[in-house]
Structures are given as structure tokens and as C-alpha cells.
Write a structure and sequence with these properties.
By secondary structure, the protein is an alpha+beta fold. The chain has 4 helices and 8 strands; from the N terminus they run H-E-E-E-H-H-E-E-E-H-E-E.
Amino acid sequence: MTTTKQQRAEFLRENWRLETLTFNWTTSSARDSYGWNICTLKGFKGDKIASTCGGGYDMKGTVLGEMINKYFTHELKKLVANSGSMDTPSGIYGLSNYNPNAKTRRFLKRATSYTRTYVDGGCGFDSMRRILEKIGYKIEFVKETKNSSTYILKSN
């Protein structure tokens, strides 16, 4: 069962803190990660949704992927995963259906009651944006400053 436009609009009304998404960039001053980059995704009132630190991978995509995993688990199970590159007729890049109990073929194209479905935001911000579009949402760029980027989450 896919969600209707009305259900997606209701989700955004109930989760209004997700309507404005701000990606903030800072530098860690912690002992074990001093000097590392930190990317934090914050909601409307500045509440922290997800964060990651380090570098060498798409940190903005990673925190967006964490948000998708947290709020859109049921919608993700309806999509077809892909182990190839980008969106193809056979599935979506960045989406995985993992069955920890299987002896062979642990990663499946379609979700079952035994699989754990999730996205890997390290595959890229653009892949996460495409996954949001597949489940009926879009993010629109609003503004960018030296240390932040702001987007609005909308229903398609």
C-alpha cells in the first residue's frame, strides 16, 4: 500500500519539525576527534535529527540518510533495492534489504518480514534525494551560508 498525497501532507503536519532541514558544519573540539569535520542535520526549532563526523565520504548524504531511516522505514520497505549503480529499472542505489538470518543471499532486492531495510547515506546526497522522491517527498534548496545549508521538505 503506497501512501497518498493526503497521508504525506498529514505526516508533514504531524512532524512539522522536519519541514525545515538545516545542515550545519562545525569542527570537533573533542579529545578523540579534535579537528574533524562535523555535519549536523537540524529541524525547524534547531533540534538535532542526526550528525556525523570525519571526512572522506558524503557527510551531508549520511545525515539525510539517517533521517530517512528514522522517519520513513515503512515507505522504504516498498522500494526495490539495487546493488548496481544509480537508479535503474532493477532497483535504487543506496537502498539495502538485509536478512541477517540467511545463510546465503543476505542482501535481497525486495524486503520481506525477515529483512532490515535501510539506506546508506554515504552513497551520496543526490541518491538520498532520489529515494525521498521515490517515497513521495522532495527537498527544495532555500539558502546557503558559510557553515550551513537550508532545505524545505515537501510532499510531492
